[in-house]
Design goal:
244 residues; mainly alpha; Arc Repressor Mutant, subunit A; Four Helix Bundle (Hemerythrin (Met), subunit A); 2 domains; two-stranded antiparallel sheet; 2 strands; globular; WH_DNA-bd_sf
Length: 244
């Protein structure tokens, strides 16, 4: 049975649209308003009802899936699962308002994502590797076109978390969403101390180094590349904070 939607009040648009959808569906699934096995509305229906883009809807559904609250059958639809009953880890992405807030989150990410990269190198499937390659190609294409690079940036990190085979890595990344990308909170050019493009080129090269280590299934190299990537972001932010 598909979840009825017209009877639901449309919530006020939150600062983070994807997180708003995640919270809406999570609350309804845990409260039993959406029963296990019920089919969620289509992407188009959610877009129309909430007034958001397809990218926002897909990010929200990806987070819900990573948290074990829904499952998607391609070509059929997305269905609610029975909640585990465990309390979710809470970090409010909307609260990352200052350089110091982002720095604290980066410290956590360095610890978690360094190990995630190593596990991903050991456990990734050919399909997961191909998906990572597509996100990096999308990053490069959008960089040249001066388009949105935040979405493929986040997707790359989420895919690595998913490739660990450990749902808690994926769940945390999915919960945080694109807020884990520092330039969603801090202007990218200010972070780099120069033009936006050279900064993003460096980020892209760091991603490629991580990818190559995962492709070779070199766990130690993957850990080192991820630590370098996130540490570089931390140092850029520290310099910015010092200038402030």
């Amino acid at each position: 049975m598909t979840v009825p939607y017209e009877s639901q009040a449309v919530p006020r648009r939150p600062r983070n649209l994807a997180q708003g959808l995640v919270e809406n569906f999570t609350g309804r699934i845990r409260a039993g308003d959406i029963a296990p096995g019920q089919k969620l509305p289509t992407e188009s229906e959610i877009m129309r009802q909430f007034g958001v883009s397809r990218t926002v809807v897909r990010e929200a559904l990806s987070r819900l899936q990573a948290c074990g609250l829904v499952e998607t059958h391609h070509g059929v639809g997305t269905y609610a699962l029975r909640p585990s009953g465990e309390d979710d880890f809470r970090v409010d992405p909307a609260g990352l308002a200052t350089v110091q807030d982002v720095l604290v989150l980066l410290e956590l990410r360095i610890c978690l994502e360094t190990e995630a990269a190593g596990l991903a190198a050991q456990r990734r499937t050919p399909e997961q590797l191909a998906a990572m390659r597509r996100t990096l190609d999308a990053f490069q294409a959008r960089l040249r076109a001066e388009g949105d690079t935040v979405t493929p940036d986040f997707e790359f990190h989420l895919l690595i978390a998913q490739a660990t085979g450990n749902r808690y890595f994926a769940g945390l990344m999915s919960h945080l969403g694109s807020a884990v990308i520092p330039r969603t909170r801090i202007n990218a050019a200010r972070m780099a101390g120069d033009d936006n493009e050279p900064y993003l080129v460096r980020v892209n090269l760091e991603h490629e180094t991580i990818f190559e280590a995962i492709r070779r299934q070199d766990a130690e190299a993957a850990r080192a590349a991820m630590r370098t990537h996130l540490s570089n972001s931390r140092e850029r932010l520290r310099r910015l904070d010092g200038q402030r």
